[in-house]
Design brief:
By secondary structure, the chain is an all-alpha fold. The protein has 24 helices and two strands.
Length: 469
């Protein structure tokens, strides 16, 4: 029965998360990029300048965290195992050319996230306890009107499942087992064998089950403290994990510097390799964009939930800060992963493999590289789980009210245990499926309200220009 359910999820994800998701996210993002006058390029200096702005200018009663904390929390969510396992999967399935399309997705994703950030503040709502809340639910109901409420609820229902860190729990478990255990060790472990016999499970599944319980216990310490604790942890973890990962990849590049030009040549060449046929080229682009959607979340709607909790009361300022997210995750971190794997790894493997490919590449390049990467993986995976729990809780609060919605955190913790056990193909399929379902209402709202974003942008920069003069 479980195999049939898993296959159904994979088939549904391939149908809905294939070309429909590609045209919705990349096509919609490209429209937003062009209609906004290439905002992700034109306003990048202004976005970087916003990071230096003192938080005293923000309205403390209008949110729960600062704009920078919101960005750190969003990046903590998006810089997850998708940046390692997702990139590896894209390389295995689509080859080096898929990375180019991840870059394209990052560029248009910045424009999409700019619009999401602006709308998150422009149409900020409140929960039934009076706390400021953001997200596609409030953007839809306030921006498009009450008659669009069914679409808002559709997003919230999809968000309950799409924010459960399906792939992160699965791939973190895989990485831990590959690094610290062997099949023989698990098979000969008396405690696991005894527990497996009692539960009627294979030893490997028992091991994954126990590790899933350990993940859930650690995550519970942070997420049960609410959004403020999540934001505080994120502002510490994000700079540390990105900095350490950068140093590791820099070492790989320096020690293999003669092969670096060939790596980038293969990325560009295979991205436009027409000899493989238009269908193959479109497939490579699709794979790159689809994996990028799981990495930067642009157009999925989750970022507007976090930025909606910001104390910022200026929509354009929040949009500028929000658009920096994809440049960090899909731009910087994914490129670091791709370069490391293409320099020292092997992408010619059978089946859908993600983290295993990346772990092998780092092990080949750095002494004890798999252990160091495991430390990074833990930071990446945990930080994602912290932020995603807030996304799901916000969706639950919208649907059921804060009194009932608070129990979602316990369902989220239980899901970490479940998805630590399921096969990777089903985990990736479920992740793709729910992301597609979240993207549909989000992009409909963002595209319909984009004229209001353009007007707010024009007014904001015109006002700033007058103040300078």
């Amino acid at each position: 029965m479980f195999d049939k359910i898993g296959q159904f999820i994979i088939d549904a994800a391939d149908l809905l998360g294939g070309y429909p998701l590609f045209f919705l996210l990349i096509g919609g993002g490209l429209y937003l990029f062009l209609s906004s006058g290439a905002v992700s390029l034109r306003c990048l200096p202004a976005a970087l300048a916003e990071l230096k702005r003192k938080p005293t200018a923000e309205n403390a009663r209008n949110g729960q965290i600062s704009s920078v904390q919101a960005l750190a929390s969003v990046v903590a969510a998006t810089i997850g195992l998708g940046n390692i396992a997702g990139v590896a999967i894209a390389l295995v399935i689509g080859g080096p050319g898929a990375i180019f399309w991840m870059w394209v997705s990052a560029l248009v994703g910045m424009a999409t996230k700019y619009h999401e950030g602006v709308l998150a503040i422009m149409y900020k709502g409140k929960d039934d306890a009076g706390r400021p809340q953001g997200g596609p639910m409030h953007i839809i109901t306030q921006g498009l009107g009450p008659k669009w409420t069914p679409l808002a609820k559709f997003f919230a229902i999809a968000g309950l499942f799409g924010t459960m860190c399906i792939m992160n729990a699965n791939q973190l478990t895989e990485a831990f087992m590959a690094t610290f255990t062997t099949p023989e060790g698990i098979a000969n472990n008396g405690f696991i064998s005894t527990l497996g016999g009692y539960l009627g499970l294979e030893n490997v599944r028992v091991y994954r089950l126990l590790f899933g319980c350990a993940i859930a216990a650690i995550v519970a310490v942070v997420i049960l403290g609410g959004i403020k604790r999540i934001a505080r942890v994120a502002t510490i973890m994000v700079p540390f994990m990105v900095g350490l990962y950068f140093l590791m990849v820099l070492y790989i590049i320096i020690t293999n510097i003669s092969d670096v030009p060939a790596v980038f040549k293969s990325i560009f060449y295979e991205a436009f390799n027409l000899r493989a046929g238009f269908g193959a080229l479109a497939g490579i682009a699709l794979i790159g964009a689809r994996r990028a959607a799981l990495v930067n979340d642009a157009g999925i709607g989750t970022a507007s939930i976090m930025h909606g909790a910001s104390r910022n009361n200026e929509p354009v300022r929040e949009g500028l800060i929000a658009m920096l997210g994809p440049s960090i995750d899909s731009g910087l971190v994914c490129t670091l992963t791709a370069v490391a794997i293409l320099l020292c790894g092997n992408i010619d493997v059978e089946g859908v493999k993600g983290l295993e490919v990346a772990m092998q590449a780092f092990s080949n390049a750095i002494p004890a590289g798999d252990i160091l990467l495991m430390c990074i993986v833990i930071c990446f995976a945990m930080s994602s789980m912290f932020s995603y729990s807030f996304y799901g809780t916000t969706c639950a609060n919208y649907l059921f009210g804060t009194r009932r919605g608070k129990y979602y955190a316990w369902a989220f913790l239980a899901s970490l245990v479940v998805f630590a056990v399921v096969p990777i193909e089903a985990a990736v399929g479920a992740c793709d499926l729910f992301y597609a379902l979240m993207a549909i209402p989000t992009m409909i709202a963002v595209l319909l309200l984009s004229p209001k974003v353009r007007k707010a942008t024009k007014d904001y920069f015109s006002k700033n220009e007058k103040n300078k003069n």
